[in-house]
Design goal:
single chain; alpha+beta; SH3 type barrels; Alpha-Beta Plaits; 5-stranded antiparallel sheet; 4-stranded antiparallel sheet; 9 helices; globular
């Protein structure tokens, strides 16, 4: 290179813009193929997602966004700052101090033994033991304002504790150990029926064969009544009617009345 041969970066393209080379994608696909030996093992479901994304990139390159869109909430706060330190604290079994800011309340600082990270409805939650509170608590990552590692004594979970079992009886992430697991009976119209038969509301979902006299279908769940369940049911509007239990039916009825009052001229 002579003195006059000067190379400058024009700032117009980055590695993120160009994406991985085809050879790199092929190597990643081979790695995923090896990892797929863990198929069916709990907590390895993300491999399917990764494989789909890599396959799309390998076939379409930079044009993939014109054909396929993967769900991602780019405006979700906290993940860029707190996911890694929380994940590291879980692995190292370290107590962390969290500055947490619930909606509609003042921020508070809690000392917690972190155990588990769970994603639901495109949000991430930390499941931890809050010192001074008997049981497990959920903390939405996007409501965390600070995380600091401490030297306090870590409270471990029982060796046989299973988070899949912990969340098995709920929709979402809110588990109330003292709440009953109830038989939820729903009557759904054809539109909702088509949706929930291809995307069940919960793993316990069962369907009564044959239509009801009014033309609707009966769907049953075996779950706790929690905020997330009611949110899912509300999202169907008048396409789903809660028949039982009575407490859930009454709660949905009162909510519908409030909505009607809000929209009443």
């Amino acid at each position: 290179m002579t003195v006059t041969d000067v190379y400058r970066y024009d700032g117009t393209r980055t590695m993120a813009d160009s994406g991985p080379a085809q050879e790199e994608v092929d190597v990643l696909m081979e790695a995923v193929a090896v990892l797929q030996r863990f198929e069916g093992v709990p907590h390895f479901d993300w491999l399917t997602d990764l494989e789909n994304k890599l396959y799309t990139t390998s076939k379409l390159g930079n044009d993939s966004q014109k054909v396929v869109s993967f769900q991602h909430n780019q405006y979700l706060t906290g993940m860029d700052k707190w996911y890694k330190p929380i994940f590291s604290a879980i692995l190292a079994k370290k107590v962390i101090e969290i500055t947490y800011h619930p909606f509609g309340k003042e921020p508070r600082t809690v000392a917690a033994s972190p155990y588990h990270l769970k994603q639901y409805n495109n949000r991430w939650f930390l499941v931890a033991n809050n010192k001074g509170y008997d049981g497990l608590t959920n903390y939405a990552i996007d409501r965390i304002e600070d995380v600091r590692e401490t030297n306090r004594t870590y409270v471990p979970l029982d060796e046989d504790f299973d988070f899949d079992e912990w969340f098995a009886d709920v929709v979402g992430v809110t588990v109330r150990p003292d709440a009953l697991v109830e038989d939820v009976i729903l009557h759904v119209n054809d539109k909702a029926w088509n949706y929930i038969t291809t995307k069940p509301l919960h793993e316990s979902q069962t369907i009564t064969h044959g239509q009801q006299p009014d033309g609707r279908w009966e769907v049953r769940l075996k779950v706790q009544d929690n905020y997330e369940l009611r949110s899912v049911l509300r999202s169907f509007g008048d396409e789903i009617e809660v028949m039982a239990p009575a407490s859930l039916r009454q709660g949905m009825k009162e909510m519908a009345e409030r909505v009607l009052k809000m929209y009443k001229d």
